[in-house]
From TrEMBL:
Residues 78-111, 248-270, 475-500 are annotated as: Disordered. It is found in: Nucleus. Keywords: Coiled coil, Nucleus. Residues 91-102, 257-270 have a biased composition (Low complexity). This is GCF C-terminal domain-containing protein.
Length: 849
C-alpha cells in the first residue's frame, strides 16, 4: 500500500520546510516525536514524508523496483507497490476544509518565501541528475500527468478498509494541508519548486564518488543499498530511524522495528513541535482509538459475514457430498441391478433360442396332424354328400317313373287303382335298374369283373332305400287327424359305418397329438409352463419385454400349442361348437394381465400403458390367425347346411369369432363368404318336383319323396335363420324367401290347398322354420306370395263358416263345426307372426276365438 503525504511542520522562522525536503535538525526532531505502532496494517505517513508511486524509468531499464523518496528512504519493490493501493487521507481533506491559523499566516508564509532553501534543494537535485550513470531521464509533463492520474485512480479504487490512521499524523497533517493550500494559492513558484524536488529523486544523491553517495543508480538504488546495509547493521541509529519513518509513509511501517522509547518521544514532540497544544495529541489518540474500534468492529462484521457465507458454503458442500454419496449408492445399486438383468436376459435368451428350435422341429408334425384332421372331416362330409346325392338320384328316378305311369293311366281315363298299379310297376322297373341290374359284367385282363363292386354297392343302396320308403309310407298312413308326419326334418344322410370309422380315426389322431411334446422338457413341453416363463419375464422386466417385441411375437410362440389343441376341436361333428371352453383359451385369456408385484418398475423400467400393451390382442390374434382359417376350411369342405346341428354350430362359431375381430377383418370376411356360398349351393341343389296331387295320390313313392324334400327345405330355412345376425339379412332373405320358399316350397304348399287340414299343418311347419325377426317390422316384399297363399286359406275358412252344411244335423254337424274352428285358430296363430295381424284378428272374431 502506497500513499503520498505533504506535511508542513511549524518550526522557527530560520528553518524553512519544503514538501519532500528534510534537514538534519528536522529529522532528529521527527525521530524524537514519532509514536511507533506494531500492527500488520500500514499506517498513515507522518508529517514530513513525501513519496511518489510508480516509476519514470525508461523501457530499457533492468531495475526490479523503483521507489521515489528523499535521501535515506528505504527501497520499496515495484511489484509490491503496484499491488498495494495508497491508504486514504481523511485528515488531509479535513485540514483543507478547516485551515489552521498557522496555515494562513506565520510559518506558512515563511515556508512559501524561502527561495534560498528551495534553490538549494533544486540545485542538489540537478547535480544528482547530472551524475546519473544509468540512463535515467527526466519525465516530461505528460508522463507526470499520467502518473498522477494512475495514483489517484488506484487510491480511489483501492481504499484500504482496514487502514488505521496514526494519532500524530492527524495533528501533523492539518498545518501541512493548510500550508500546502496557501502555497498553491499564492504563486506558481512553489509548483515549479516541487517539480524540481521531484526530479531530484531520479538522480544520484550528492556525495563523493568513493563513498556511499557515489553509488550508481541514483537515489532509488541508494535506497535499495541502504535496506541491505540495514540488514547488515552498517548504518547508525539515526539512519535506521529515518528509514523506518519513510517506510511507514510508504505503507510498510509494520516491517520496521518498534522501539520501546517511541511513546516518550511522541509526547515530547507534541509539546515541542506544536507549541502549547498538549491536549491535541490526547484528543487525536482518542479519535484514533475510536477509529480503530470502528475499524475492528467493521472487520468483525466482515469476518462474521464471511463466516456465515463459509458456513452456508459448508452446508451446501455437505449436502452436495451427501447427494453425491447417495448418487454413488444409487449407481452401485443400478450397476448391480443391470448385472442381474444382464444375467437374467442371457438365460432367457438361451431359453427362447431353445424354444424356437424345438417349435421349429415340432411345427412340421403339428401341421401334418392338422391336415390329417381336416382331411378326416372333409372325407366324412364328402361321403355323406355323395351318399345323399346317390339316394336323391335313385329316389328321383323311381318316383319319376311312378308319376309318369300314373299320369299316363289317368290321362287314358283309368281309375285311381289302375293308375296306382301302373305306378307300382314302373317303380319296380326303375328300382331294379337303380340296383345295378343294368350293369353287366366288365372283365379286365385278369378276368375280374370290374362292375361287381358297383353292383354290390348299388344293391345295398337299393335295399336301404326300400327300407326307408317303407318307413316313410308307414308314417304317412299313420297320419293322426290333421297332423302330417314330419318326414325329412330329422333325416341324416350319413351311414353308421362311416360315422364310426371317422370317430375311431379321429380318436387315434388326438391321442397321437398328445405325444408331440412328450420328449420336451417340462418348461418347454406345455402351454402353461411357457406362459409362466414369459409372464415372469414381463413382470420382472417389462421394458425389456416390450423392447424385444415379445407382445407381438407371443401369438407365433403359442401357435403350435394352440393348433395342436385345436385338433381335438370338432365344431361340426362334435358335441361342443365353441372354442372358449378349450384349455388354450382358458390359459391365455388373462396372459400378461396379472404381473407378480411391481418388480418391473424397479428393475426393468416402467411398462407401457395398458392401452398400448400388445398382449391385450393375444386372443384376438390367435382367433384371427388360427381359428378363423380353420373355420373357413371346415365351412367350405365339411359343413352340410341341411344339417340343423352343424348349421347351428357353424353360426355359433362365426358369432363367437366376430366378438374378437372387427367386422371388416379379412379372415372373418372369408369365413362369412364361405358360409354364404355353401348356403347358396345347398338351396340351388334342392328340388321339389311340381307333381300334381292326383299323380302323388296314385304314386306313394312320389308323395314320400316330396315329403322328405319338403322337410329338407324346412331344415335349410332353419339354417338360414340361424345365420341371422351373422350374415347380412338381405342375402339371407333372398335365399330363404325368393329362391327357396317361392320357387321350391310354395308349389308344394299350393298343391294341398284343397285339403285345408293338410294345408294348415304344412303352413304351421313352415311358419316354425321362418325367423320371426324377418317379419318384426312388417312382412318383407319377398314374402308377398306366401301371404297371398295364407290369405287363400283364410278365405276358405271364412267361407266354411258361412256355409249351411257346416251347421247341419246332429253330432256330425257339431263335429263339422268344431273342426273349422280349430283350423281357424291354428291359421290365425300363423298369420300373426307373418305380419298379417289384421286378417288373424278378423278370423278370430269370425270364429269367436
Amino acid at each position: 500500500m502506497t500513499s503520498k503525504a505533504s506535511t508542513v511542520i511549524h518550526l522557527p522562522p530560520v528553518e524553512v520546510s519544503v514538501a519532500g525536503e528534510y534537514s538534519a535538525e528536522r529529522l532528529k526532531e521527527l525521530k524524537k516525536n514519532t509514536l511507533r505502532y506494531v500492527a500488520p496494517q500500514p499506517s498513515e505517513p507522518v508529517a514530513g514524508v513525501f513519496k511518489l508511486s510508480g516509476s519514470f524509468k525508461p523501457a530499457g531499464t533492468t531495475a526490479a523496483a523503483v521507489a521515489v523518496a528523499v535521501a535515506g528512504t528505504p527501497p520499496v519493490a515495484a511489484a509490491e507497490e503496484a499491488d498495494l493501493p495508497p491508504p486514504p487521507r481523511p485528515n488531509a481533506a479535513r485540514a483543507a476544509a478547516n485551515p489552521s491559523p498557522a496555515g494562513r499566516g506565520g510559518t506558512g508564509a515563511a515556508v512559501q518565501r524561502a527561495p534560498a532553501a528551495m534553490d538549494a534543494a533544486v540545485a542538489a537535485a540537478v547535480v544528482a541528475l547530472d551524475d546519473d550513470d544509468d540512463g535515467f531521464q527526466i519525465p516530461n509533463e505528460e508522463t507526470i500527468r499520467r502518473a498522477k492520474e494512475k495514483r489517484e485512480r488506484l487510491r480511489s479504487a483501492h481504499l484500504a478498509p482496514d487502514y488505521i490512521p496514526l494519532a500524530t499524523a492527524s495533528v501533523l497533517e492539518a498545518p501541512e494541508a493548510t500550508g500546502a493550500a496557501a502555497a498553491r494559492d499564492d504563486s506558481d513558484e512553489d509548483a515549479e519548486a516541487e517539480e524540481r524536488v521531484r526530479m531530484a529523486f531520479l538522480g544520484k544523491a550528492p556525495g563523493d564518488g568513493g563513498g556511499k553517495g557515489a553509488r550508481g543508480g541514483g537515489v532509488l538504488a541508494g535506497i535499495a543499498e541502504d535496506v541491505q546495509a540495514e540488514a547488515e547493521g552498517e548504518e547508525d541509529a539515526d539512519d535506521t530511524w529515518v528509514r523506518e519513518q519513510l517506510r511507514k509513509g510508504a505503507g510498510r511501517g509494520a516491517a520496521g522495528p518498534a522501539g520501546p522509547s517511541a511513546a516518550p518521544r511522541r509526547s515530547t514532540a507534541a509539546g515541542v513541535g506544536f507549541g502549547g497544544r498538549g491536549a491535541a495529541p490526547a484528543a487525536a489518540a482518542a479519535a484514533a482509538a475510536d477509529e480503530v474500534v470502528k475499524a475492528l468492529r467493521r472487520g468483525v462484521e466482515r469476518l462474521q459475514a464471511t463466516q456465515a457465507h463459509a458456513e452456508k458454503g459448508r452446508r451446501r458442500a455437505a449436502e452436495n457430498l451427501a447427494a453425491a454419496v447417495a448418487g454413488v449408492g444409487d449407481l452401485e445399486a443400478q450397476l448391480e441391478a443391470a448385472g442381474s438383468r444382464f444375467a437374467y436376459l442371457q438365460q432367457l435368451r438361451a431359453y427362447i433360442a431353445d424354444l424356437c428350435d424345438m417349435l421349429q422341429e415340432k411345427s412340421a408334425l403339428v401341421e401334418a396332424m392338422e391336415e390329417e384332421a381336416e382331411a378326416l372331416m372333409a372325407g366324412r362330409a364328402e361321403a355323406a354328400a355323395k351318399r345323399g346325392e346317390e339316394d336323391a338320384a335313385d329316389d328321383q328316378a323311381v318316383a319319376g317313373a311312378a308319376v309318369s305311369a300314373a299320369l299316363a293311366a289317368l290321362s287314358r281315363g283309368s281309375s285311381l287303382s289302375d293308375a296306382t298299379a301302373a305306378a307300382e310297376s314302373a317303380a319296380a322297373e326303375a328300382e331294379a335298374a337303380a340296383a345295378g341290374g343294368g350293369m353287366g359284367m366288365q372283365l379286365d385282363e385278369l378276368g375280374r369283373d370290374l362292375n361287381m363292386e358297383r353292383r354290390r354297392t348299388a344293391a345295398a343302396r337299393a335295399e336301404r332305400r326300400r327300407a326307408r320308403l317303407q318307413r316313410d309310407l308307414q308314417r304317412l298312413r299313420q297320419r293322426q287327424g290333421d297332423a302330417e308326419a314330419p318326414l325329412g326334418e330329422e333325416t341324416s344322410d350319413e351311414s353308421e359305418s362311416e360315422v364310426s370309422r371317422y370317430v375311431r380315426k379321429r380318436r387315434d389322431l388326438v391321442d397321437a397329438a398328445r405325444t408331440v411334446f412328450a420328449d420336451a422338457g417340462d418348461e418347454f413341453g406345455s402351454l402353461r409352463a411357457l406362459k409362466a416363463r414369459l409372464e415372469e419375464w414381463k413382470g420382472a422386466q417389462p421394458r425389456a419385454y416390450h423392447d424385444a417385441y415379445m407382445g407381438l411375437s407371443a401369438p407365433a410362440v403359442f401357435a403350435p400349442f394352440v393348433r395342436l389343441e385345436l385338433l381335438a376341436w370338432d365344431p361340426l361333428f362334435g358335441q361342443r361348437a365353441g372354442f372358449d371352453d378349450q384349455d388354450w383359451y382358458q390359459a391365455l385369456f388373462d396372459y400378461g394381465q396379472a404381473l407378480p408385484g411391481d418388480a418391473g418398475a424397479q428393475n426393468g423400467g416402467a411398462a407401457p400403458s395398458a392401452d398400448d400393451d400388445a398382449d391385450n390382442e393375444l386372443i384376438p390374434r390367435l382367433v384371427r390367425e388360427l381359428v378363423l382359417p380353420r373355420v373357413t376350411r371346415l365351412l367350405a369342405g365339411a359343413w352340410n347346411p341341411a344339417s340343423r346341428r352343424q348349421s347351428r354350430a357353424a353360426a355359433a362359431v362365426l358369432q363367437d369369432a366376430a366378438a374378437y375381430v372387427p367386422p371388416d377383418d379379412p379372415a372373418l370376411q372369408a369365413a362369412l363368404e364361405a358360409a354364404l356360398e355353401r348356403l347358396s349351393d345347398a338351396v340351388a341343389a334342392l328340388r321339389l318336383p311340381p307333381w300334381p296331387p292326383a299323380a302323388t295320390a296314385a304314386a306313394p313313392q312320389a308323395a314320400a319323396l316330396l315329403a322328405r324334400r319338403f322337410g329338407k327345405a324346412l331344415r335349410l330355412l332353419r339354417a338360414l335363420g340361424a345365420f341371422d345376425g351373422v350374415l347380412a339379412r338381405g342375402p339371407l332373405l333372398s335365399l330363404a324367401l325368393e329362391r327357396l320358399l317361392h320357387q321350391q316350397m310354395l308349389p308344394y304348399l299350393r298343391a294341398a290347398a284343397a285339403d285345408l287340414p293338410l294345408a294348415v299343418g304344412r303352413m304351421e311347419r313352415l311358419a316354425g322354420a321362418l325367423r320371426p325377426e324377418w317379419f318384426a317390422g312388417g312382412p318383407p316384399p319377398a314374402a308377398a306370395p306366401l301371404l297371398e297363399y295364407v290369405g287363400v286359406l283364410a278365405r276358405a275358412l271364412e267361407q266354411q263358416r258361412g256355409s249351411d252344411a257346416s251347421l247341419g244335423n246332429g253330432a256330425a254337424g257339431g263335429h263339422a263345426v268344431s273342426k273349422p274352428k280349430v283350423l281357424a285358430g291354428r291359421l290365425a296363430a300363423v298369420l300373426a307372426p307373418l305380419g298379417d295381424a289384421a286378417r288373424a284378428a278378423r278370423l278370430k272374431a269370425l270364429y269367436k276365438l
